[in-house]
Fold:
Amino acid sequence: MKGRKADLRTIDGGLKGVPKAPASLPDGIVPEWNLIAAEMVERKILTASMMGVLETYVVALWTVRECQKAIAEHGLLVSSAHDKLKPNPASGMMSKAMETVARLSAELGLTPAARSKQGFQKGEKKSGGAPDGLDV
Structure:
């Protein structure tokens, strides 16, 4: 769905500590969970209800990395059952996973554009003032 993205703000009731990674996550991606969750907790934007979205984001990121490995190992084109070249199935999977990563990273406030929105910054600023370092 296209349109204006919601302005995300510090959430009352945000988690105070980094939640343990779900057991369903592949071991190799757990450090990424810890890194992202810690950043979101620090910015006070992670709540219990957002855990599923964060898990989906991390699994999609893991999927992208696994597809990249498969493409590196087997190439962009692979042989079909009839010895014809066809696109590596990992390419299609990676494309879908990358779309998910892009969409959810914006929703979770992980992109520079999302962080620049009011509510994603560490120190909330009042709107309408001059930019930092500009004397008016």
